[in-house]
Design goal:
Layout: H1 17-37, E1 41-48, E2 55-60, E3 66-71, E4 74-79, E5 84-89, E6 95-101, E7 106-111, E8 116-121, E9 127-132, E10 138-144, E11 149-154, E12 159-164, E13 169-175, E14 180-185, E15 191-195, E16 200-205, E17 210-216, E18 223-229, E19 234-239, E20 243-248, E21 254-259, E22 264-270, E23 275-280, E24 284-290, E25 296-303, E26 311-314, E27 319-324, E28 350-356
Antiparallel strand pairs: 1-28, 2-3, 3-4, 4-5, 6-7, 7-8, 8-9, 10-11, 11-12, 12-13, 14-15, 15-16, 16-17, 18-19, 19-20, 20-21, 22-23, 23-24, 24-25, 26-27, 27-28
Length: about 375
């Protein structure tokens, strides 16, 4: 709780100035220490959602209220103001991700099983067309405002497909010779993508469809989620060996690392609070900041729910959204699926809403000097 200061009444005795200053500084120091040590975020709500299939990436409509959730063979849209379903984009088999291009009133869905990108109208959610990708299993998908292109990153195709949203046609392919995972755009002519099977990160030029650099992520195994602090030009990659690494976006130099939970799949960065997040399937949301010394520091490890491995962030309200379900025993192993996931119990799919605790300002971080 922040210390409260009151002006003395007219009849109150005036205390010596030095003592007032000393007392005020003491109170401020105590208040800052209390905020820094307080539990910053809380799991505020759990909301039941329809459907019993698996899920993948989530995308929040920044500046709006809608949350897009990849869910089985459709995209579920949630009104985050009222926390109720607001529509669906159907027939997206094996859906992985959702990219939003508001300047074109378009959204793009990577449908992994059909090898297509499904185009929908952003305002109405009406399904418009399918675009065949130039590689198998389109997974992560983003819109780059600099090149005004949509890029789908194709896991088994080991490449990326570039789409022009003005015509909704494929305009090129970028070979990566690696399995791409999540990608982020800096809005200035570069896109960064994790290369999962190479334990590395690539910087690419989306306009000319060329790889600029490939950087090894030392100490990071099987990088999945990726977030960007565009102001400080720092990348935050989350890794299968339970670490988050910070990377200088100009040089690719590793700046530090911090422990996170197990089973991570997504990362996000809040520019206002200067905090990075890692959503981990073991049921932990790891909250990380850059400390004054430049090292990564764990601010909080918040219990969420087993399976809550993907997330989205509303940068305006600072709320973090995750989804999960309850699980039964896994089905028998097969040659095609030697390590099957546990079965989802019907009627248990739900949205988790994480928010800053009332009266507690999330502590921001310092700068990492390259």
């Amino acid at each position: 709780m922040k210390p409260e200061f009151r002006w003395p009444t007219a009849g109150a005795r005036v205390i010596a100035g030095a003592r007032v200053i000393a007392g005020a500084l003491t109170l401020i120091a105590v208040g800052v220490q209390a905020v820094a040590s307080a539990t910053t975020y809380r799991l505020a709500r759990e909301v039941s959602l329809p459907g019993d299939e698996g899920w993948d990436y989530m995308t929040f409509e920044q500046g709006g209220e809608r949350l897009f959730i990849a869910h089985g063979s459709e995209v579920l849209v949630v009104d985050t103001r009222r926390l109720v379903p607001a529509g669906t984009i159907a027939d997206t088999p094996g859906v992985h991700g959702i990219a939003l291009a508001p300047e074109f009133d378009r959204g793009y869905v990577s449908a992994g099983r059909s090898g297509t990108v499904v185009v929908f109208e952003l305002k109405t959610l009406a399904r418009l067309k399918e675009i065949k990708t130039t590689g198998e299993n389109p997974d992560a998908i983003i819109y780059d405002p600099f090149s005004r292109r949509v890029l789908s990153f194709n896991g088994r195709g080991r490449n990326a497909t570039a789409i022009d949203p003005q015509t909704d046609t494929v305009v090129g392919t970028l070979a990566l010779d690696a399995k791409p995972e999540f990608a982020v755009s800096d809005g200035k002519g570069r896109i960064f993508v994790n290369l999962e099977d190479r334990n590395s990160l690539a910087a690419i030029d989306p306009q000319h469809l060329r790889v600029i650099s490939v950087w090894a992520l030392g100490g990071c195994e099987q990088p999945s989620g990726l977030a960007l602090d565009s102001a400080g030009e720092h990348l935050f990659a989350v890794c299968g060996n339970k670490v988050m690494v910070a990377v200088d976006a100009a040089s690719g130099r590793i700046l530090g690392s911090a422990p996170i939970g197990n089973g991570v799949d997504a990362a996000r960065y809040d520019p206002a609070t200067q905090l990075a997040f890692a959503s981990c399937g073991e049921g932990v949301l790891s909250v990380i900041r850059i400390g004054e010394s430049g090292a990564l520091e764990v601010v909080q490890s918040l219990a969420t729910g087993r399976g809550a491995r993907t997330m989205a962030l509303d940068e305006r309200s600072h709320r973090v959204f995750l989804v999960t379900a309850s699980f039964g025993p896994p089905p028998p192993a097969t040659a095609e699926h030697p390590h099957p996931r546990p079965a989802i119990l019907p009627g248990t799919f739900r949205l988790l809403v994480v928010e800053p605790r009332p009266g507690v300002m999330p502590p921001g971080g310092g700068k990492v000097e390259p």
